[in-house]
Amino acid sequence: xxxxxxxxxxxxxxxxxxxxxxxxxxxxxxxxxxxx
Length: 36
What we know:
mainly alpha, single chain, rod-shaped
């Protein structure tokens, strides 16, 4: 039971990290586009 909970937390954390990275990439991309 405990291991399953930890795995769920890790999955949640990883998915949040992925979305955060995507947002960062989008923000950087928009900044580059605005400069051009």
